[in-house]
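Lab notebook, bench 4. We co-purified these components, and the gel suggests they stay together. Before we commit to crystallization screens, I want a quick structural picture of the whole thing.
Request: model the full complex, all chains together.
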Amino acid sequence: MTAIQINSVEKSYKGFKALKGVSLTIEQGEFFGLLGPNGAGKTTLISTIAGLIRPDVGSVKIHGHDVVTDFREARRKLGVVPQELVFDPFFTVRETLRLQSGYFGIKNNDKWIDEVMDNLDLTNKADVNMRALSGGMKRRVLVAQALVHKPPVIVLDEPTAGVDVELRQTLWKFISRLNREGGHTVVLTTHYLEEAQAMCQRVAMLKSGQVVALDTMSALLRRVSGSQLIVHLNSGELPPDLRHLVSHDEHGNGSGNKYSLRVNDYAEVEPILARLRESGAVIDEMQLQQADLEDIFIQIMEKGAL
Amino acid sequence: MSVVSVGFRTLFYKEMLRFWKVATQTIAAPILTAMLYLLIFGHVLEGRVEVYPGVSYTAFLVPGLVMMSVLQNAFANASSSLIQSKITGNLVFILLPPLSHWEILLAYVAASVVRGVAVGAGVFAITAWFAHLSFAAPLWIIVFALLGAAILGTLGVIAGIWADKFDQLAAFQNFLIMPATFLAGVFYSIHSLPRFWQAVSHFNPFFYMIDGFRHGFFGQSDISPWTSLAIVSAFFAVLAAVAINLLRGGYKLRH
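Here is the predicted assembly.
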């Protein structure tokens, strides 16, 4: 089943095109990452999915319900954690969650509210006014608010921006469980690429309002050829016939040179080391580094696509 | 859509809870203000002005002050709640759920009516000690109080949606709501005005709300309460249509 269907969405603000014909299909049960630098259009796209922004062109459907023409059904299926740390200063945590349940038409929701608070370590703050909470705690309440109606589709817009490690771990443990056991679709935007690499099965990368990469995480990681062999030479130079392998080098502070060499598989490592020995170079330090999402992200953002 | 849906009831309850949690500011303060008006104007003008035969000026003033309090507080409730939510960003909690446009409008207006009527009842309970009041037609009192509060609650929703910052809302209140209320015959009968200003007053919808409300007390008014009811009802219908269209179109709410 298709959880989110985005068809050729365009959105402009006073002449600035924030989204330039974005199309995406996210299936039910996926853990999907939406990545891109600041200003790429991630939040605009999420706000369009949430119905907070109306597209100039194109359409968005949640479980087959258009977010503009059939907004009530679409919103029942969707839980959104906004990027901004917003709260209503008049209410306690429990009041906030009860009100949010009511807005979604759910009465007597305390059992689930208690479970959500327990999973987000909010139970001992249940009767505390929102104003008295730390930023991290407010962020947890935002997550809880998005989950009060058990939405099949959960959208998290940079939920871990500026929060401590403990919250990140608590949050990801709970969200992963919802995705794994409850079959909830999760759409995540984050600037922490290691989080996206660890959590997401599929990723779309946005740049200047356009999707520049869309693939499974494993396929994306395969796109960057092989790994990096990082060698720190104490003495000697990198032989000229190895220079074509250099992806970037960092000159040491007078004690030698550091080079990153591209290797497609482990079998290529030994010949490189042998060539270095032949040339008289002395290796002070060596490291084999797998390509990660950050490498791919940087390459895509620099070149537009791989 | 059911008017008494859980979504409507929750938003209505939230709006009530919001003003109740700051009742000193939202209920007690306007009652004190109205009492000061009565003490000052009543003291200065008592015995000098007789608007209706056999009705003291203080007695004449009480319904006007009650209605003015109802109207101003009904407006303040919806408008301040919306602008605060817009500026702090927590309006998103209302915009993300599947609330219909009618549920949102009715919840804000109903809570405004409750606050307006609560303040009006408080003003009446205190000011009634200072004057001998009759209740010639109590049904008109109830009808115009509820309708007036609903109209100002709706205007509050419109102003709250339109305003981007507190000064814009203050301008709406100070340059539109306040003059329209003060010039609607709270402190005088429009028959005491020159002919030109009498004619101008007939274009002020607030005049009909206050005149009809006062008719409920004294059984006499500047114009027929039925005429006032028709004009006030039409005004309410127009404002409700404007408000619902703003919500439906997402004006300044959904970009």
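Residues 202 and 208 of chain B are 8 Å apart (CA to CA). Worth comparing against the SEC data before the next meeting. Residues 6-249 of chain B form one domain.
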